[in-house]
Specification:
The complex is a heterodimer of chains A (156) and B (508). With 156 residues, chain A is of the alpha+beta class. Chain A has a single domain, classed as CBS-domain, CATH 3.10.580. Chain A has five helices and six strands; from the N terminus they run H-E-H-E-E-H-E-H-E-E-H. The relative contact order of chain A is 0.19. With 508 residues, chain B is of the alpha/beta class. Among the domains of chain B are: 203 residues, Rossmann fold (3-Layer(aba) Sandwich), CATH 3.40.50; 135 residues, CBS-domain, CATH 3.10.580.10. Helix content of chain B is 31%, strand content 17%. Chain B has 17 helices and 17 strands. Chains A and B meet through helix 1, helix 2, helix 3 and helix 5 of A and helix 1, helix 12, helix 13, helix 14 and helix 15 of B. The complex binds iron/sulfur cluster (SF4). Iron/sulfur cluster binds next to loops of chain B.
């Protein structure tokens, strides 16, 4: 089985989706930054008054639009976010979602169900985590330092 | 387990010792160690208050690898030793690491008595259903019919059920998890640490050399969610990849039902971690007849042993004054034992440096078992096959202004920071910009990248397998990994996107 064929059998909702912060449209950039830091996330999804997703703000946006422009700190997040981000349905196959990411050079694809509820954020890390738990013997259970290898089987 | 804490900032690295980890490559113990090292700093307990105590067996090497206090103690006696430690210093956060052999064969008795006393311990039992260290004999948890080196015609013994045993010993906290499910394991260990009194956790652990298929169905990511019942207190027992199955009670007997066709969530059992009866029902549910229950099975509060014991000591001292051990000692008959002649110490044999042949055979076998193409690629393809990008480097003396400009100019997420000799000394990423710089540093031209980078980053070599990159990315959450040559000069960089793209595109 190739990764492609394995991911075809998984739905996006079966992957361990990445965590995200959530803020309201109109929030000050400064506050969103503080929230991302407190919650240790790289991504903030921005919603309107009806809890509908209207934008996405990532560490890439911080680098491109905020860090060298201190005046944006007090502006609303809407000025620096990416508006109307592309989303995917949680029952889409993981292979199709990955293809969508690669074709569009996206690093984040929020999964939103038919009621508009945001379930998580699909990232390349989601695929890495999927693979790690799919192949724990090869990936997770490696000696921490590959250059210091036990010469003998000696568990105890 | 609760201990008074002050604000201390420890990281995962603080709990990694300098010892070479000696488990077989592929052993599930590695995943458990990684999660333990991840959970430890989050508990906010100073390192000098943490002790890992073990007995004998593969799992019992654990204390060497944790940079805390540790005791590699006597076979089966870790709970006993730990009880003594808890009594003599109730402030300690004590972890007992044991296995199905150490904890349930020779140490079975010690285990149940520590549990029934509700000593403030976290007892973690690695269950691989085999003797690993002694090379593959059946253990007290091996299934009936299991063919092993000591049961060539299949084991005729009824296996022990560790969860039921702990419940029978009136454990106040009982949980189960599995090595390969890192998030679940992390959460379960944290819950165990938080519980005052004895916490007993059974971890299904893969002995890749002597019992590699024991947890098939539970460890494999693509099927596990259909075979595991994740328990959550107060929630109906729904399970399945698509959350379409559940557990219903039929008289005293649990049964698996499909949701729909008149069966709703309301018909299902609700998990109650305070119910003794329900805990026993859950303990009787064995995979594959049932989904394996995982998570916190029982969580109740009872007075712990040490505080009650100390209470009695205080009462006695208040009534009769502080005792004198020496006086008590000399109060009974005394006699003298004459000194014996010295027995010449046996000279220990030199450690053999040759590879153990059986071990090598087993390792080869484990490698040949690759069943999917991805599995092949993980081991056979090297980092060099990914065609790592040429890294963009920046001098460690540079300003933050220059660093952020470079990132934007090259439209990249990560810079490698080098010193005057062109050696890699740090990594500076867009995540650092978010976490430490934006809105926090007023004058970027005045701040040095050296103060905001991540120093001494974890690196990778071109000849290492792709699995190593995935390992580092999944265990540590890294998005980028720098490559360095023998002299420590940066030669390339790979990202999680590169790894995924390579695996996704490589055909045959
Ligand atoms: S013998 Fe089994 S349990 Fe022991 S270190 Fe090797 S794989 Fe792990």
């Amino acid at each position: 089985m190739t990764l492609e064929s394995e991911l075809r059998e998984e739905q996006v909702s079966h992957l361990g989706l990445s965590g995200f912060s959530k803020a309201s449209s109109g929030a000050a950039v400064r506050d969103v930054l503080a929230q991302l830091r407190a919650e240790r996330h790289n991504v903030c999804l921005i919603t309107d008054a009806n809890d509908k997703l209207v934008g996405i703000f990532t560490d890439r946006d911080v680098l491109r639009r905020v860090v060298n422009a201190p005046e944006t700190l007090d502006a609303p997040i809407d000025d620096v976010m990416t508006k109307a981000p592309v989303t995917i349905r949680p029952d889409l196959s993981a292979a199709a979602a990955l293809r969508a990411m690669d074709e569009n050079h996206f690093r984040n694809l929020p999964a939103v169900d038919e009621h508009g509820a945001i379930l998580g954020d699909m990232t390349h890390q989601s695929i890495i985590n999927f693979l790690a738990s799919r192949y724990p013997v090869e990936i997770l259970n490696r000696p921490p330092d590959p250059e210091r290898f036990p010469r003998k089987q000696e568990g105890g | 387990m609760s201990t008074a804490t002050t604000e201390i900032q420890l990281t995962r690295k603080d709990f990694v010792s300098d010892q070479t980890v000696r488990w077989c490559p592929g052993c599930g113990d590695y995943a458990i160690l990684a999660q333990m090292q991840k959970v430890m700093p989050e508990l906010g307990i100073p390192k000098e208050k943490i002790v890992f105590v073990s007995g004998i067996g593969c799992s019992s090497r654990f204390p060497y690898y944790m940079d805390t206090y540790g005791v590699h103690s006597i076979h089966g006696r870790a709970p006993t030793l730990a009880t003594g430690l808890a009594v003599s210093n109730p402030e300690l956060c004590i972890w007992v690491i044991t296995g199905d052999g150490d904890g349930l064969s020779i140490g079975g008795n010690h285990l149940i008595h520590a549990i029934r006393r509700n000593v403030n311990l976290n007892i973690i039992l690695f269950n691989n259903r085999i003797y690993g260290l002694t090379k593959g004999q059946y253990s007290p948890t091996s299934r009936q019919g299991k063919v092993t080196k000591s049961s060539p015609m299949g084991s005729i013994e009824q296996p022990l059920n560790p969860i039921a045993l702990a419940l029978a010993a009136e454990a106040t906290f009982v949980a189960r998890s599995i090595d390969a499910h890192t998030q679940h394991l992390e959460e379960t260990l944290r819950r165990a640490a938080e519980h005052p009194g004895t916490s007993f956790v059974e971890i299904y652990q893969n002995c890749v050399i002597f019992n590699p298929n024991e947890w098939d169905g539970l460890s494999d990511r693509s099927v596990r969610d259909d075979n595991i019942l994740y328990l959550e207190h107060g929630m109906p027992m729904v399970f399945g990849k698509d959350r379409n199955k559940g557990i219903r009670l039929n008289g005293f007997t649990p049964e698996v039902v499909e949701l729909g066709n008149g069966i709703e969530e309301g018909d299902l059992l609700i998990h109650d971690a305070t119910s003794t009866q329900l805990a026993f029902i859950l303990s009787s549910m064995e995979y594959p007849q049932f989904p394996a229950p995982m998570g916190v099975i029982r969580d109740v509060r009872k007075p712990d042993y040490v505080s009650q014991l100390m209470g009695q000591v205080q009462t006695a001292q208040a009534q009769r004054g502080v005792g004198d051990l020496n006086k008590l000692y000399r109060a009974a008959d005394l006699w003298t034992v004459n000194e014996r002649e010295d027995v010449a110490a046996k000279v220990a044999g030199e450690l053999s440096l040759d590879m153990d042949e059986e071990y090598v055979d087993n390792l080869d076998k484990a490698d040949m078992d690759a069943t999917t193409q991805v599995q092949d690629q993980l081991i056979e393809s090297s980092i060099a096959d990914l065609n790592p990008h040429v890294p963009i480097t920046i001098d460690v003396q540079s300003s933050l202004e220059r660093a952020t400009r470079q990132l934007n100019l090259h439209n990249i997420g990560c810079l490698l920071v080098t010193d005057a000799r062109d050696q890699l000394v740090g990594i500076f990423t867009e995540r650092d910009v978010l976490m430490k710089v934006a809105g926090l540093v007023d004058d970027l031209s005045d701040a040095k990248v050296a103060d905001y980078m991540t120093p001494s980053p974890v690196t990778i070599k071109p000849d290492q397998p792709i699995a190593q990159a995935l390992h580092l990315m999944s265990v540590h959450g890294f998005r980028h990994l720098p490559l360095v040559d023998e002299q420590g000069h940066p030669t390339g960089i790979i990202s999680s996107r590169d790894v995924v793209a390579y695996l996704n595109q490589a055909v045959n």
